[in-house]
């Protein structure tokens, strides 16, 4: 992995997104804290992985970054500019440099438009280049994602899932983004196609120097792609650090359990195999103290009372656990 | 695929028309004696026999049927029994009035309904939405004749601003067109709303936002064309209601169109005229539904390929 050490491209601070609750006393107490105080940064050209179970707030975080969802509180700073205070129209224009790739590529394409028109649309919307050169640009983009030029005249129902995801990637590339938020971009694809799309994303990053926020529940793909990784649980980041550090020496019991659940990726120093029991609690009523204590095999009495903070343990490795040091040894 | 697809549709349409012809023939012959209705039950036997012969009613049923099919194939629908004019002439006189009323109310209802549906969908669960949906329920659950009479009472009798019967001026068109159009507007508003809401939930709508498309473009460029597919299905079905609705509304407002002509023809057992009108209505329905099928292939690219047609 290449060494990237520059000023952050994206700085997310104390981001919160709550749903419901505010408008009516009937709903009081039913606030869903989808994202609770999330902070991280992404450097130019790097991949920041976000992993967690469904409902942990990783998708909501991604949607807020690209402006599809408005944060309840917190700040999003992109390339030195604060985005949360922008009007909808300003945000729409600024969005150019930030694109998103979706989970289900076939439904992310308008069934009534040819691939050419879909890839061309962002170019028209943001007035990129000279209009009659845009079709040539479309061909160029198709080539960049290894799609045959003949695909341009197909409709979404005439191409495969893998081809559709390549088209979606080409559509995002057209605006020459600095950051692409990839929300589970390969989880709807067949395994063999997954590998090829993953390789394409890596290849494009090397050639164009884009940064990715890579959201996934698949720890193996995140390990392969990410320079740094954050693990989310019930709207909070519980562990964040360089991918190598986090996977080699996970310091949060939740991360340890997730990694132990991957058959061939269990940490080699594990004392015993831990598996997660049950489903995550509802974000409408998160457990007291440490949100994870209800499922943590390490939980002690104090965990239910005192909420741990995200703190640094050795270099850039941060953990939200009272007893992280015990794993570090 | 297109040619064979439409060839099949056309063959099916011709078969349907034949069924309509046969069915009306059978139904009319079973439902009473037209000569009695024409000359009255006091008429001398010789007069009755004369008319029977004149209209070919003395011949065996199958012979009447075959000769009827034959002349229809040649475009001859026979003479109206009550005023001795060719049935086609009577239809040609009434048709422009019906088309005027039908087109104005259908197109008006479709436009108004689609606009209301879009407005409701964009304001989902807000007061605007609830207001539009209340209107829609009112529109399609109110029987035509009842709404027509209410409007007539209010605007013609009470306020005395609009004429209540006839088709002499453009003013005469307003009340019947509103009566008929309200029904369509209500139906289309409801279907447009739900079709738009469904489409707006799709990921490509989120994708359109993510790539920076403004709302107007998202609605009219991405959402509406995709929502048009289910709306079009309802348009096809509602064309049938247009015929039924016209019959009622034309009778209420004494509008000299096909609907009123048909009601008169049925009452006086005017075989030739009833059959001619029913066949004309059937052919119109076939043609409009063929047109709807054809528009599908324009609106939905998935219909253009055989694989898509199956899916």
Q: Kindly state the percentage of residues in helix of chain A.
A: 25-40%
Structural class of chain B: mainly alpha
N to C succession of SSEs of chain A = EEEHEEHEHHHEHEHEEHHEEH
Poorly predicted runs of 5 or more residues of chain A:
none
SS-based class of chain A: alpha/beta
Keywords (chain B): Cell membrane, Membrane, Transmembrane, Transmembrane helix, Transport
Family (chain B): Belongs to the binding-protein-dependent transport system permease family.
Membrane topology (chain B): Multi-pass membrane protein
Pfam families (chain B): BPD_transp_1, BPD_transp_1_N
Considering the chains and any ligands shown, give keywords for the structure:
heterodimer, A: 329 residues, alpha/beta, Rossmann fold, eight-stranded mixed beta sheet, four-stranded antiparallel beta sheet, B: mainly alpha, MetI-like fold, flat, disordered C terminus
Please characterize this protein's 3D structure.
The complex is a heterodimer of chains A (329) and B (311). Chain A is built from 10 helices and 12 strands. With 329 residues, chain A is α/β, with parallel strands linked by helices. Chain A has a domain at 46-66 and 86-231: P-loop containing nucleotide triphosphate hydrolases (Rossmann fold), CATH 3.40.50.300. Chain A has an 8-stranded mixed β-sheet, sandwiched between helices. In chain A, helix 5 runs parallel beside helix 6 (191-208). The two termini of chain A are 26 Å apart. Chain B has 311 residues and is mostly helical. Chain B has 2 domains: 11-73, no CATH class; 93-258 and 284-310, MetI-like fold (Orthogonal Bundle), CATH 1.10.3720. Chain B is built from 13 helices and no strands. Chain B has helices at 2-30, 34-39, 45-54, 61-73, 87-122, 127-141, 144-158, 171-200, 203-210, 215-252, 258-267, 271-299, 306-310. In chain B, helix 5 runs antiparallel to helix 6 (127-141). Chain B is flat and about 85 Å long. The A-B interface holds A 66, 68, 89, 92-93, 95-96, 99-100, 102-104, 107-112, 114, 121-122, 125-126, 155, 157-158, 168, 171-172, 175 and B 202-204, 206-214, 217, 222, 225-226, 299-302, 305, 307-308, 311. Chain B: It is a multi-pass membrane protein. Chain B: It is found in: Cell membrane. Chain B: InterPro entries: BPD_transp_1_N, MetI-like, MetI-like_sf. Chain B: Its main location: membrane. Chain B: It holds the Pfam family BPD_transp_1.
């Amino acid at each position: 992995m290449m060494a990237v050490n520059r000023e952050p491209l994206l700085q997310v601070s104390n981001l919160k997104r709550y749903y419901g609750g505010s408008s009516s006393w009937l709903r009081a107490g039913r606030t869903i804290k989808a994202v609770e105080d999330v902070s991280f940064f992404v450097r130019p050209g790097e991949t920041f992985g976000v992993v967690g179970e469904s409902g942990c707030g990783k998708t909501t975080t991604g949607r807020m970054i690209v402006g599809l969802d408005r944060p309840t509180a917190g700040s999003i700073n992109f390339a030195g500019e604060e985005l949360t205070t922008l009007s909808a129209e300003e945000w729409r224009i600024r969005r150019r440099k930030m694109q998103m790739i979706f989970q289900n590529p076939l439904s992310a394409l308008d069934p009534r438009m040819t691939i050419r028109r879909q890839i061309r649309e962002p170019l028209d919307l943001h007035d990129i280049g000279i209009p009659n050169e845009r079709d040539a640009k479309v061909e160029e983009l198709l080539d960049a994602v290894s799609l045959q030029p003949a695909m341009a005249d197909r409709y979404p129902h005439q191409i495969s899932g893998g081809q559709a995801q390549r088209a979606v990637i080409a559509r995002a590339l057209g605006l020459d983004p600095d950051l692409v938020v990839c929300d589970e971009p390969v989880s709807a694809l067949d395994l063999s196609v997954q590998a090829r799309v993953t390789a394409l994303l890596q290849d494009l990053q090397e050639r164009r120097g884009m940064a990715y926020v890579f959201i996934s529940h698949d720890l193996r793909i995140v390990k392969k792609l990410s320079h740094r990784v954050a693990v989310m649980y019930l709207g909070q980041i519980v562990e964040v650090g360089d991918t190598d550090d986090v996977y080699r020496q996970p310091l949060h019991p939740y991360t340890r359990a997730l990694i132990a659940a991957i058959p061939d990726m269990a940490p080699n120093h594990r004392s015993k195999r831990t598996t997660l029991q049950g489903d995550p609690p509802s974000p409408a009523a998160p457990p007291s103290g440490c949100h994870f204590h209800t499922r943590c095999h390490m939980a002690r009495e104090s965990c239910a009372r005192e909420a741990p903070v995200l703190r640094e343990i050795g270099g850039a490795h941060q953990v939200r656990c009272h007893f992280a040091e015990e794993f570090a040894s | 695929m297109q040619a064979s697809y439409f060839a099949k549709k056309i063959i099916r349409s011709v078969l349907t028309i034949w069924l309509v012809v046969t069915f009306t023939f059978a139904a009319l012959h079973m439902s009473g004696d037209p000569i009695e209705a024409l000359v009255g039950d006091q008429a001398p036997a010789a007069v009755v026999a004369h008319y029977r012969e004149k209209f070919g009613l003395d011949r065996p049923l199958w012979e009447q049927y075959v000769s009827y099919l034959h002349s229809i194939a040649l475009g001859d629908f026979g003479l109206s029994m009550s005023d001795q004019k060719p049935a086609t002439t009577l239809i040609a006189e009434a048709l422009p009035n019906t088309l005027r009323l039908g087109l104005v109310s259908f197109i008006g209802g479709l436009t108004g309904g689609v606009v209301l549906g879009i407005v409701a969908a964009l304001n989902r669960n807000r007061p605007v939405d609830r207001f539009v949906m209340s209107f829609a329920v009112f529109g399609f659950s109110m029987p035509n004749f009842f709404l027509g009479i209410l409007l007539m009472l209010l605007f013609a009798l009470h306020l005395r601003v609009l004429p209540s019967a006839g088709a002499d001026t453009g003013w005469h068109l307003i009340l019947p067109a509103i009566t008929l159009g309200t029904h369509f507007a209500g139906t289309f508003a409801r279907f447009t709303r739900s079709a738009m809401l469904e489409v707006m939930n799709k990921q490509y709508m989120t994708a359109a936002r993510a790539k920076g498309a403004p709302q107007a473009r998202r609605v009219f460029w991405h959402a509406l064309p995709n929502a048009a597919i289910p709306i079009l299905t309802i348009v096809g079905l509602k064309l049938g209601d247009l015929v039924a609705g016209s019959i009622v509304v034309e009778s209420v407002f004494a509008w000299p169109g096909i609907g009123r002509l048909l009601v008169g023809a049925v009452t006086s057992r005017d075989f030739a005229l009833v059959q001619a009108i029913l066949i004309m209505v059937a052919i119109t329905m076939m043609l409009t539904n063929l047109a709807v099928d054809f528009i599908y292939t324009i609106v939905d690219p998935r219909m253009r390929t055989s694989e898509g047609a199956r899916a």
